[in-house]
Amino acid sequence: MESTLSCQSSVVRCQLGALWFSLLAAVALVLPQNRASAAGGAKPNVVVITIDTLRADHLGCYGYSRIETPNLDALARLGARFTQAYTPVPITLPAHTAIFTGSFPMATGMHDFSGNKLPANGTTLAKVLRDNGYTTAAFIGAAVLDSRFGLNQGFETYFDHFDFSRLDETNLDLTERRGDLVMDEALGWLKQAPRPFLLWIHLYDPHFPYTPPEPYASRYRTHLYDGEIAFADAQVGRLLSFLKQRGLFDHSVIALAGDHGEGLGEHGEKTHGFFIYNSTLHVPLILKVPGAAPRVVAEDVSLVDVMPTLLQELKLPIPASVQGRSLLGLILGRQGPTVARPSELYAETYLPLLHFRWGQLRGLESGGWQYIDAPRPELYDVRSDPRELRNLYGAP
Ligand SMILES: [Zn+2]
User: Fold this and answer.
1) How far is the CA of 223 from the centre of ligand 1 (A)?
2) Residue 202's beta-bridge partner residues?
């Protein structure tokens, strides 16, 4: 392993947050004025689908040939598919917090999967939409996103309802609900949901342990992680079919993202959370907005960009606390500067520090270079070395 897990040196540390904060405060986002709403001015519905532990390079639409993900592939063909999307933290709760606050962990204080709670005065996508007339609901697949951690803020319906009575016998991150049961609940709610609505569906299935139901267990018996992804894809298919049958699909903004990837043995990491290599940072991101042509976007983007993108599409003000930038210009193929901050990608994990008293890792990826602030610093040329195998730090 290249990394040891106690950190003292700091190169990216201080200036990073201050720089992004000041840039974000200074730059005003320009709302699109000339694209007619696909439904004559009615507010579009918003559907956010997060699939846990989903590596971008294990989907058909990202070039993977050992899996069938027809529903995600079809959605990608209709929307903007981001080839270089990254999570700021490879841990479920803080990654989802980044999506739903548009802010990095250093701003929300959410670094871990337990032991922290989003402050009650936090600004969330759900709060903003609820306050602007949206019906809001979330259907959750894992106890690590239980309402006790605060991400339920703004959701009028938050289907978690996990049984914590056996927590002393099992781990929090193993308390989960299968994706078909999550989707059953979500579709039941959708049948009578007032519009416009914000619906968040969280599918936890690709998270370890890899135990897909049949026929996926047999079909993918030699690569069960992929079987879990294929099962999650089928659940997404149920949702997309429902939206189409009800005439809701064309007038819905749909965001689909992985919260982080999975090590699968790369860098000696089986799952995720210990390191900040692209095996666990690179995620799929698909954004479909009504009336926009399909597009593949190769610019570096972060999950903190999802919330401001959705708000700009809905023509709602972006709260000052949001650190991400709207990607709407990229989705619409507009030329010219579209960024409200530099395209550097910050990433961190505090799990080794908080659970093992080792140390945190923080990193910055920019211009094709990935720097990891570790006791033995690491620097990778990710364009020529995408799997980050040759540490060039200090190389002549
Ligand atoms: Zn996760």
Assistant:
1) 19
2) 50
Q: How many domains does the chain have?
A: 1
| Ligand 1 center from residue 207 Cα (angstroms) | 7
> Alpha-carbon torsion 177, 266, 357, 100, what sign?
negative
Asked if residue 266 is part of any domain, the answer here is: yes
Question: Ligand 1 centroid vs 201 CA: distance in angstroms?
Answer: 13
Domain holding 113: CATH number?
3.40.720.10
Give SS3 for 81: strand
**8 A C-beta contact, residue 182 and residue 139:** yes
Which residues is 81 bridged to in the sheet? 286, 296
For residue 108, CA distances in Å to 60, 92, 119, 314 come to: 34, 14, 8, 24
* DSSP-derived 3-state class of residue 245: helix
Q: What is the mean pLDDT of the chain?
A: 88
pLDDT tier for residue 1 given thresholds of 50, 70 and 90: very low
Counting every residue written for the chain, the total comes to 396
Q: What is the mean pLDDT of residues 156-184?
A: 83
More confident residue, 12 or 263: 263
CA-atom Rg of the chain in angstroms: 20
CB–CB of 382/24 below 8 Å? Answer: no
Distance 14 CA to ligand 1 centre (A): 27
Question: Does a structural domain hold residue 253?
Answer: yes
Q: How far is the CA of 7 from the centre of ligand 1 (A)?
A: 24
Which range of residues forms the domain containing residue 291?
A: 43-343
Q: 42 CA to middle of ligand 1, Å?
A: 34
3: confidence class by pLDDT, cuts 50, 70, 90: very low
Asked whether residue 30 is assigned to any structural domain, the reply reads: no
Predicted local distance difference test score (pLDDT) of residue 240: 98
379 part of a folded domain: no
Distance of CA 295 to the CA centre of its chain: 19
The yes-or-no verdict on residue 33 having pLDDT over 70 is no
Query: Residue 113's pLDDT is what?
Result: 82
DSSP E strand stretches across 160-289: 197-203, 252-258, 282-288
The CA 260 to ligand 1 mean position distance, Å, reads 6
How high is the pLDDT of residue 325?
A: 93
